[in-house]
Write a structure and sequence with these properties.
alpha+beta, three-stranded mixed β-sheet, 2 helices, 3 strands, elongated
Length: 69
């Protein structure tokens, strides 16, 4: 759901792409994975910059309403 990669120039790309959903949403699982990727990029001295991207047409729909119930 959160893909992390670093290119040869030290640019990390964090891509939010929730499988099985038409849009990305924030829930406990996705937020945990996102935080983990951000912390990984901060801890890596080789990372000079970070791009946060979406694997979907729109970036994010907001909070997962199913989580609110």
């Amino acid at each position: 759901m959160i893909d992390y990669s670093v290119d040869g120039d030290g640019i990390a790309t964090i891509t939010w792409d929730m499988p099985g959903r038409s849009m990305n949403v924030m829930n406990q699982e996705s937020m945990g994975a996102f935080v983990e990727a951000v912390e990984k990029s901060i801890a890596d001295d080789a990372v000079k910059g970070v791009i946060i991207a979406s694997g979907k047409k729109d970036f994010i729909a907001g909070a997962d309403l199913e989580m609110m119930l």
